[in-house]
Amino acid sequence: MKNNQVIVSKSERGSMTILAGVSLVGMIAFGAVVIDTGHMLVTQADLQNVADVSADSATLELGRLYQELGKTDPGSYTLTAADEARILESVNRVAESNRVAGDPITINGDDLTYGRWAYADDGMSSEIAFEETTTGPTSVSVRARRDEVANGPVTTLLASAIGMDSFDVSARASSALTPLSTLPAGRIELPVGVSNVWFQDKKAKCGTDALIKFYPTGTLEGCAGWHTFESWSANASKLKHIIEGIKDGAFESPEVVVGETQFVFIGGTITTALEAIKDLFDERKDEDGEWRVQIPVYDDFDCSNPSGLTTIVGIATVVVTSVDAHGGDKSIDGKIACTILRYGKGGGPDYGTYLAFPSTLD
Predict the structure, then answer these.
(1) Is the pLDDT of residue 23 over 80?
(2) DSSP 3-state of 327
(3) Are 153 and 335 in contact, with CB atoms under 8 Å apart?
(4) Predicted structure pTM score
């Protein structure tokens, strides 16, 4: 029987040793990359969580700030340096309680961006874009980072063996004050509504320039209508009775759910109810002669007087400035205001009235 032998020369043995060494180095490098890739992904996820909670904290503080403005409409209010410092402090109270790759996180002021999400052009487009502004912002974008700018790069676990000592990572999140989609029972103090058409045609949707008449109605200037809530049929006599009940505390308005609630509307002449409306206005107006109330926005195709059962599609805030129930020029004047509320739920169409609790945007 033949004996087969394999003879390996010294040079071949040296080559195999080198090959084995190179393979080992490659395996170590690959293992280091795999481990630190996982480390990077975990770090990224942790940093995203910091960005999310920081954005919510920023917008919540923005809502609190707006609530403290009193009669000042947030839509026309420009954030001061002190306001931004207050919001940043709130953000860092949350951020610093979280650790990313073992270290606490601090958010820089330059990494907070204020703005509004708005529909393009005339508001009829389905495309929305973020408009950066510190005047009346309703959204805050927060960038959390670990790099040379803030908090320092993240040290690698093993990849330093192949010359990769650290890596940068960042995450961004936006949070917004969402428009109201509900009003609790008892919230509506004045049984009037605004047509959604008014918001389509008005460039100044909030503030001192957004003037509207609640009497007379039926025009672009008076693009509104009165209602008797869910009581059919609407007429001036029933409207007067409801207004007197609101004034005396004998009537509570029902809950409003946008897209579901329907009220019975009436327009035109409501002369017999005007005196009751004036009495209610005189009782509830403030020292400046203004009365701020939340009212429904109803679905319509023009500004003609509404009639019958109509769906509520949003919630607005109005400031009633005068009620003239006598003489030949009877009128009820007001303006649409931007404000922040504490009650209800968010997620409705934007008619300038928001919930003071934020919703994180993906």
Answers:
(1) no
(2) coil
(3) no
(4) 0.78
